[in-house]
C-alpha cells in the first residue's frame, strides 16, 4: 500500500499486476485471496491499483482533468457495486471496511463532491463495520489502511469517531509494536488540526503521511 502515499508510479504496470493476480485461481475460476499476501480481496486490491494509477497519470494533482474525474466516478460505481456476500462474521465486516475505505480513498484524492457517493453515509458505514470487528484480532489489525483513508475525511462534528479511531490505532500500536499505527495517529491529528483532509498534501516530504506505508 506504500504506492498510495507516494508520488511515484507503482513499479509494475497495470498489465503486469493484472497478469500476476490472474495466475492465482481456485478450481472454480475464482481468484484466490491470500490473507498472508495482502489483507483485502484481490478485486479490491486491483481497484486500489486502478485508482492510484489513474491519479498518478495526472500531470498536476491540483488540477485533475474532467476525463480523469469521469473515469474515477465509473471506478467508484464499480467499487460501490462490488459484493462480498460470500463472506460472513468478522471477515465480512473487515472486507466491507476495505471496500468502503477504497471508495473513500478515491473520493478524497479526486476531490469528488460529497453528493456523488454520499460521502457522509459511507464514512458512517465504514466505522459501523469497524466497530463490529472484535478488537485485538487479526481482523481488526488488518484495517488500518482503509480506516486511515476514512479518518482523513472526518470533520469536527465527528469528534467521537475521531477519538475511537485514535484509540483503536493506539491499541494496535501497543499490541503489535508496529510504528505505522503511531504514524497514522500523528498524520490524522495533523490533518484534523488543518481542517481539510481532502487537500492535505500527502506527498510533502516532511509530512508524516509521506512515511505512512500501510
Structure in words:
The protein is mostly helical. The protein has one domain (2-211). 57% of the residues lie in helices and 0% in strands. The protein has 10 helices and no strands. α2 (42-56) packs antiparallel against α3 and α9 runs antiparallel to α10. The longest helix has 21 residues, at 89-109. It starts with 13 loop residues before the first helix and ends in a 20-residue tail after the last helix.
Number of separate helices: 10
| Cα separation of the termini | 6 Å
Overall helicity: 55-70%
Radius of gyration: 17 Å
Q: Note the run of SSEs as H and E.
A: HHHHHHHHHH
Low-confidence stretches: 201-214
Instruction: Decide which structural class fits the backbone.
Output: mainly alpha
Largest sheet: none
How many domains? The number is 1
The quaternary structure here is single chain
Share in β-strands: under 5%
Shape: globular
Mean pLDDT reading: 82
User: How many beta-strand runs?
Assistant: 0
